[in-house]
Design brief:
It is a single chain. With 206 residues, the protein is of the alpha/beta class. The protein has helices spanning 13-24, 39-44, 46-70, 81-94, 100-114, 130-140, 150-165, 185-200; strands spanning 2-7, 27-29, 75-78, 122-127, 171-175. A five-stranded parallel β-sheet has the order 2-3-1-4-5.
Length: 206
């Protein structure tokens, strides 16, 4: 099976992915952050590096999708290829941070890849408000993220909500403002109970 965890920057995708890997023994595919050669440059100068960054993410996520399709394991992915174009690249283009020329080139490449990609067996979306995202971004303290503009996060939030509203696959939405799965064990149990019900037809014990 293919599970994907989606959500805005700072929503807790990696934390949830790590916890689900421990709980179910799934094989993780984490988003490249620490070894990403463009990320720091992008946050310092978004118009200059937006295309480079998005192609880097798109390339990595497409490689993962190909590997997942060939694997017999259950794989959980920290951010999906769909978010690359529907959320991040679209937001950059609409905010004037990716040129029309780069956007057209990127979109053509993405459309070709998308024709070869299936939806995950389950998409888990962590819905978090901007104040929650900002607090969590500040808490984890990555230097290059401290310069993220508020309007950039707000643009991503709008794109996420539009995408999720029209999503056609199996979907689980988690309220990231109130479900503190990383801090409260009982909240994490609620998440896994819902996953068990969707994937395995299991109902939580009363």
């Amino acid at each position: 099976m293919h599970i994907a965890v989606a959500g805005n920057i700072g929503s807790g995708k990696t934390t949830l992915t790590q916890m689900l890997v421990q709980r179910y023994g799934w094989t993780p595919r984490y988003e490249s952050v620490g070894d990403n050669p463009y990320l720091a440059d992008f946050y310092a100068d978004m118009p200059r590096w937006s295309f480079n960054l998005q192609v880097y993410f798109l390339n990595n996520h497409f490689k993962e999708v190909v590997e997942i399709a060939q694997s017999q394991e259950t794989i959980i992915q920290d951010r999906s290829i769909f978010e690359d174009a529907y959320i991040f690249a679209t937001n950059l283009h609409e905010q004037g941070l990716m040129s029309e020329r780069d956007w057209n080139n990127y979109k053509s490449l993405f459309d070709l890849m998308l024709s070869l990609v299936k939806l995950p067996d389950l998409m888990i979306y962590i819905r978090s408000s901007i104040p929650t995202l900002v607090a969590q971004i500040q808490k984890r303290g990555r230097d290059y993220e401290q310069s993220i503009r508020l309007d950039y996060l707000q643009g991503l939030e709008r794109r996420y909500e539009e995408w999720i509203a029209g999503y056609k696959g199996q979907l689980l939405i988690i309220d990231g403002d109130n479900c503190k799965f990383g801090d409260r064990p009982e909240d994490f149990v609620q998440v896994t109970d819902r996953i068990d019900s969707i994937l395995y037809g299991l109902f939580p014990m009363i």
